[in-house]
């Protein structure tokens, strides 16, 4: 019985031990290994990428970068192109996975292949184990691979530019031509330019003189004051020439006569662009095309219009001017006959094009649509109240894939948004359905709770369980104490000796002897008249009235007193009763007379 009394307290103690002192477990780990390769210009390089872990992998999403001026993506990854590729898998993968990613060697040099900085907040560069193990990314080590591209013996050394056109991009997204000083010449490598204070970056279109040479633009973003922008041209042989543009951001707004001329063309067509009436330019002379775009013509409402097209992205740009003659490029959505401002986000050396988000684009419910400022451009985005350092944007990546991306305002980085990994990072959930997590089911339950709030709820539930257990223990303790008291009383009653059986004859004889010496006083206490009769021979004498035990004791005492008084009297009626009554009382002296209770009667 004592074991049952203390068992609830031991159970409660175990709950606290496991709740607040969990058993430590060894954390899982994973790594990414990238091999290196050597190839000649024009050849194909194979890079082996191995993803391994000491536990079974459930999900991973890894974004890699490579030197686009030296290498060109060929295949082997989930997707890739324009300086980046992605490895993604969801399901029962095992403890390792291997990819062979191939590249075409474009130019001589050292091509880097590396994993972009992992970011669990952005849900990229992460590896999650199968459900039931860890809830955080287990990636803890990775390396960088190098593809060494060797130039052929007869490789060209031409690293000159044939053309160089520069445009200024304002904070409002408008584009203006920039005049270089001196005028461009392939042999001149240093130029100067002045732009207005509202200009935030340069758009540069540079064409190499040799088709096998490559170009790379660095530091096109401008700050107030003096800035330097570099255009590096790498020849087939690997020789590099650098062109430098020294740009001064002045306190005045610099306008362009070429832009105004395009806006005042009498044959121009008016269109509605984002609620503003704009004019379609009929000439792109003096306007720098965005990198990767070429000038072409397009028939719009029966009129031949000069446009800029990107074969890789499948986008077409119109050059539109406002009433003040200030122009900029707009993306034309041919299917919806829609114009929206051409805006880009540059991060990690890659250019992402901001796309128009229609009703089919459904960010998680926790995000609200608003205007955000990225690269000094105001554009459409989505913010949530819990993470103001990050914004969702709908963009097209360099591979031509459209989707939601996470932009980090502090680090100026952009990563693909994966809703399922977002849920896993917060709740430790790891679904195995094989979907991309485009629905809002997971995020619906995220609304209003993130990180610390989730832990607070878990602690509250644990505290409630402990309180319930404490109440149960108190109730059991009270019941056990009552039961113990009852058992102790029972044991005590068993140890009390039963009184000796009353010997009526001995008692009467003792009383009679004592009364013969000293007369007893008359009893004044009320008596209960009892009628008795002498039974037939062999029968028991039974009192007519059935009495309780207390009444029997009182009756017995009265009878003894009456008999004692009767024997001490000389006359038959000395004590107030007649001779017949005295005769009846004499029957009490008979040896066959006994007083019975209810149980004795039942036995008779």
CATH architect. name of the domain at 30-150: Sandwich
- According to DSSP, the number of beta strands is 31
Going by helix content, strand content and strand pairing, the class is alpha+beta
Low-confidence stretches: 255-264, 429-452, 538-544, 570-575
Q: What shape does the CA trace take? A: elongated
Radius of gyration: 52 Å
What does the average pLDDT come to? 76
- How many helices? The count is 9
**Helix content bin:** 10-25%
Main sheet record: 10 strands, mixed
Strand content: 35-45%
CATH class of the domain at 30-150: Mainly Beta
N-C termini distance: 43 Å
CATH topology of the domain at 30-150: Immunoglobulin-like
Characteristic terms for this protein:
604 residues; alpha+beta; Immunoglobulin-like; 10-stranded mixed beta sheet; 7-stranded antiparallel beta sheet; 9 helices; 31 strands; elongated; Cadherin-like_domain
Describe the protein.
- Keywords: Membrane, Signal, Transmembrane, Transmembrane helix.
- Residues 566-604 are annotated as: Disordered.
- It holds the Pfam family Cadherin-like.
- Residues 179-248 form the Cadherin-like beta-sandwich-like domain.
- The protein is an alpha+beta fold.
- It has helices at 2-20, 257-263, 419-427, 441-444, 452-495, 504-517, 549-567, 579-586, 598-603; strands spanning 30-34, 37-40, 44-66, 71-75, 79-81, 84-105, 109-115, 126-129, 139-142, 144-150, 161-170, 175-177, 190-195, 199-208, 214-218, 225-234, 240-249, 269-273, 276-280, 294-300, 303-310, 315-321, 327-333, 338-341, 344-347, 350-354, 368-374, 377-384, 387-396, 402-408, 413-416.
- Helix 1 (2-20) packs antiparallel against helix 5 and helix 6 packs parallel to helix 7 (549-567).
- Residues 255-264, 429-452, 538-544 and 570-575 have low confidence and may be disordered.
């Amino acid at each position: 019985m004592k074991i049952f009394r203390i068992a609830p307290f031991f159970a409660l103690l175990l709950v606290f031990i496991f709740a607040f002192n969990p058993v430590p477990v060894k954390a899982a780990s994973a790594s990414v290994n990238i091999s290196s390769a050597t190839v000649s210009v024009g050849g194909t390089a194979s890079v082996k990428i191995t993803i391994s872990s000491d536990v079974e992998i459930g999900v991973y999403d890894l974004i890699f970068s490579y030197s686009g001026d030296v290498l060109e993506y060929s295949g082997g990854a989930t997707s890739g192109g324009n300086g980046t590729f992605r490895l993604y898998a969801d399901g029962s993968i095992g403890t390792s996975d291997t990819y062979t990613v191939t590249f075409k060697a474009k130019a001589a040099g050292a091509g880097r292949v590396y994993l972009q900085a992992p970011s669990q907040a952005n849900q990229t560069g992460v590896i999650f184990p199968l459900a039931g193990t860890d809830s955080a990314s287990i990636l803890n080590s990775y390396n960088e691979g190098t593809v060494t591209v060797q130039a052929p013996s007869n490789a060209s050394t031409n690293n000159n530019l044939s053309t160089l056109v520069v445009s200024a991009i304002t904070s409002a997204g408008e584009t203006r031509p920039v005049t270089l000083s001196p005028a461009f010449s392939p042999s001149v490598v240093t130029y100067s330019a002045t732009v207005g204070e509202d200009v935030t970056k340069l758009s540069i279109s540079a064409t190499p003189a040799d088709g096998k040479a490559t170009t790379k633009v660095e530091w096109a973003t401008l700050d107030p004051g003096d800035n330097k922008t570099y255009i590096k041209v790498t020849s087939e042989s690997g020789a590099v020439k650098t062109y430098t543009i020294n740009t001064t951001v002045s306190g005045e707004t610099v306008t362009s006569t070429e832009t105004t001329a395009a806006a005042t063309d009498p044959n121009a067509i008016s269109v509605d662009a984002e609620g503003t009436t704009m004019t379609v330019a009929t000439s792109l002379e003096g306007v720098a095309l965005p990198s990767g775009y070429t000038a072409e013509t397009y028939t719009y409402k029966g009129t031949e219009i000069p446009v800029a097209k990107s074969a890789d992205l499948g986008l077409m740009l119109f050059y539109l001017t406002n009433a003040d003659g200030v122009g900029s490029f707009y993306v034309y959505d041919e299917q919806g006959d829609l114009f929206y401002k051409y805006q880009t986000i540059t991060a990690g050396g890659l250019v992402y094009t901001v796309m128009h988000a229609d009703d089919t684009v459904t960010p998680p419910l926790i995000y609200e649509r608003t205007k955000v400022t990225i690269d000094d451009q105001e554009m459409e985005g989505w913010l949530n109240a819990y993470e103001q350092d990050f914004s969702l944007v709908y963009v097209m990546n360099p591979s031509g894939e459209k989707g939601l991306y996470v932009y980090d305002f502090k680090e100026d980085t952009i990563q693909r948004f994966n809703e399922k990994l977002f849920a896993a990072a917060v709740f430790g959930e790891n679904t195995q359905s094989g979907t991309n997590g485009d629905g809002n089911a997971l995020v619906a339950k995220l609304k209003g709770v993130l990180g610390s709030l989730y832990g607070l709820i878990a602690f509250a539930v644990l505290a409630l369980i402990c309180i319930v257990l404490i109440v149960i223990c108190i109730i059991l303790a009270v019941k056990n104490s009552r039961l113990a008291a009852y058992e102790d009383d029972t044991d005590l009653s068993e140890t009390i000796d039963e009184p000796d059986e009353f010997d009526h004859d001995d008692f009467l004889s003792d009383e009679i002897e004592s009364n013969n010496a000293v007369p007893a006083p008359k009893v004044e206490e009320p008596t209960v008249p009892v009628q008795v009769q002498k039974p037939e021979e062999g029968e028991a004498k039974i009192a007519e009235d059935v009495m309780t035990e207390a009444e029997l004791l009182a009756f017995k005492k009265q009878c003894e007193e009456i008999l004692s008084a009767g024997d001490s009297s000389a006359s038959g009626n000395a004590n107030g009763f007649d001779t017949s009554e005295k005769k009846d009382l004499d029957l009490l002296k008979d040896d066959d007379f006994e007083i019975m209770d209810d149980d004795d009667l039942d036995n008779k």
